[in-house]
Amino acid sequence: MDLGTIHDFLVLNPKGPIGADEKDLMILATVLMLIVVLPVFALTLYFAWHYRASNTKATYAPNWSHSGKIEAVCWLVPFVIVGILGTVCWISTQRLDPFRPIASDVKPIEVEVVSLDWKWLFIYPDLKIASVNELAFPVGTPVHFRITSGSVMNAFFIPQLGSQIYTMSAMQTQVNLLASEAGDYTGFSANFSGDGFSDMSFDAKAMSEGDFEGWVKNARASKDSLTLASYRQLAQPSERAPVAYYGDIEPHVFHDVLNQCADGSLCRDDAMRFASLQETYDGRLALCTPAKPRGL
Predict the structure, then answer these.
(1) Which of these, 112, 118, 96, lies nearest to 14 by C-alpha position?
(2) What is the rounded (10 degree) CA torsion for 77, 83, 88, 91?
(3) pLDDT value of residue 61
(4) Which of 61, 149, 179, 267 has a beta carbon 3.0–4.6 Å from 259's, enabling a disulfide?
(5) Could you tell me where the DSSP H helices lie in the chain?
(6) Top-confidence range, 50-54, 60-64, 142-146
């Protein structure tokens, strides 16, 4: 992400309902905190000027030790501010829960997101396509993201749409977003992840239904397929990876990445089920081998 993008203050220019609500929350919190900060700054300057050595009219009270009015202000104002902030944050935490579906008459689009070194893989399981460093979706359509990492911890963030979400290996999280205006929005990694971190960005394209159908058609025209073999090649560290498309996908790629078996090893969920079965059979259960095709 270049300096020009940083200077756009993308968080303060939301293009979706989640981003707009988060912007309002930040502004409200800032205004409430300024109720304390601004008077403190103003009174600091006032006291320094009013009680200067040359001002003989200033009251000199070396034995002063208590003021009920000052105590009331110092305790009551922060109490009220913290109470308001706590209430607003509690309500917003429920309303803006990333796992909470966005109310809409339109069926959400499912997108599986994998953060890699140093690129983003987007899988559309229902459309059977995938893309690298480019995300597309129709305007006004909720997008349900399932997110994991194929490498180190990272963070998925489209500032103008809202809700930064961390990605972690062998763990899955979710986020629901929606764009209310068409446009190309900047998405990037918001968590340092190594040498190529600064260029780990992607384009989030909010399109009309017709344009999105054209984008899907263009992606399907690609002769490349997202298989476990092609994923392992893609997962190799690289910087400034170009946009790429996969016209077809193996349906279990995201599952295998999540369960750390994209390299052909035993999947974590299978291992957990196997461990559970071993308890059932008092530890007598074993994996299948050519010598013991039934395992037992």
Answers:
(1) 96
(2) -170
(3) 82
(4) 267
(5) 3-7, 17-50, 68-95, 209-220, 228-234, 253-258, 268-280
(6) 142-146
**CATH 2.60.40.420 intervals, the chain:** 109-258
- Per-residue pLDDT of 153-194, as tens digits, reads 999 999 999 989 999 999 999 999 999 999 999 999 999 999
Residue 204 makes CB contacts below 8 A (sequence gap 6+) with 135, 136, 137, 158, 161, 179, 184, 185, 186, 187
Q: Roughly what angle, to the nearest 10 degrees, separates helices 17-50 and 68-95? A: 170
pLDDT digits (tens, 9 = 90+) for 258-295: 999 999 888 988 888 877 776 666 656 565 555 555 55
**DSSP per position, 143-211:** EEEEEEESSS-EEEEETTTEEEEEE-BT--EEEEE--SS-EEEEEEE-S--STTGGG-EEEEEEE-HHH
